């Protein structure tokens, strides 16, 4: 049951469309809350996400190791044969079970303890397969998360550059279609980030020290751009502004549902989002 629980959590965290397993969420949220207790939070911010990922992977590994140890332990005396180099007087059933589970899940297979029962001879290779699956899942998880983080940071940098250029002041007066194209592209990128956050909920817990790469610090500027563009006389620009504002509102709704459970307007949610990541607007 322990092994199946760990495998279920791995599946829901990495491959299930809804995002995150219950155990991994508890581990990540615990580390997130713990990091907020650190006084000099700015020095700890960028490490919270990677440490949380490592903690979840270690938790999965420990559960699988413990579960298989409990499978071997009751049968250690009579269900296994031992190599001649092992000293019988120094043997301990639990330690031997833990050792066998560790070398099997790590796919080392030293061969000094060998199962003799038929079903145990099938169980040991199965544990090795699960150990290989754990390694594959960990690599797959990292390869999935960091592209999503890169897209989020790229959107933040783009908003930061627009803010430096004071685009909100200039955008209502532009006569070309470039303004509506700009807002449409921002809406598309924000929709992609929203999908990433749904699929990989753990990306929420990655903080950025630099406000230039922090979407929580800069997403309110997308609202400012949209509201400025809605005062323009051109209908295509007004439509693009409405779509962008709706995209931000949908993103804020997701934040309220999964991470910031409280009622409030889009502006209030975005303010809490920024504060939760160590930024203020």
Automatic annotation (TrEMBL):
Domain (Potassium channel): residue spans on this chain = 81-142
The alphabetized UniProt keywords are: Ion channel, Ion transport, Membrane, Transmembrane, Transmembrane helix, Transport
This chain belongs to the protein called Potassium channel family protein
Q: Matching Pfam families, A to Z?
A: Ion_trans_2
From which organism does this entry originate? Blastococcus goldschmidtiae
InterPro entries tied to this protein: K_chnl_dom (IPR013099)
Biological process terms in GO annotation:
monoatomic ion transmembrane transport
Transmembrane helix as UniProt keyword: yes
Domain of life, source organism: Bacteria
* Matching Gene3D superfamilies: 1.10.287.70
Transmembrane spans: 51-73, 119-143
């Amino acid at each position: 049951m322990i092994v199946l629980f760990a495998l279920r959590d791995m599946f829901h965290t990495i491959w299930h469309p809804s995002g995150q397993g219950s155990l991994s969420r508890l581990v990540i949220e615990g580390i997130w809350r713990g990091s907020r207790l650190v006084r000099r939070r700015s020095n700890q911010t960028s490490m919270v996400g990677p440490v949380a990922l490592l903690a979840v992977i270690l938790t999965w590994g420990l559960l699988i190791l413990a579960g298989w140890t409990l499978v071997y332990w009751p049968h250690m005396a009579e269900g296994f044969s031992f190599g001649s180099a092992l000293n019988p007087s120094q043997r301990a059933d639990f330690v031997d079970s833990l050792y066998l589970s560790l070398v099997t899940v790590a796919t080392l297979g030293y061969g000094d303890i060998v199962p003799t029962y038929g079903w145990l001879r099938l169980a040991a290779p199965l544990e090795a397969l699960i150990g290989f699956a754990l390694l594959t899942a960990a690599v797959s998880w990292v390869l999935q998360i960091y592209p999503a983080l890169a897209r989020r940071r790229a959107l933040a940098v783009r908003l930061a550059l627009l803010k430096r250029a004071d685009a909100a002041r200039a955008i209502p007066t532009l006569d070309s279609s470039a303004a509506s194209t700009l807002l449409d592209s921002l809406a598309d990128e924000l929709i992609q980030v929203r999908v990433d956050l749904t699929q990989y909920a753990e990306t929420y817990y990655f903080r950025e020290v630099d406000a230039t790469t922090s979407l929580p610090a800069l997403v309110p500027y997308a609202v400012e751009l949209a509201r400025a563009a809605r005062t323009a006389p051109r209908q295509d620009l007004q439509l693009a502004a409405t779509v962008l504002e709706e995209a931000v509102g949908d993103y804020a709704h997701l934040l309220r549902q999964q991470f910031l459970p409280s009622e409030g307007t889009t502006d209030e949610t975005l303010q809490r989002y920024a504060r939760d990541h160590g930024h203020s607007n």
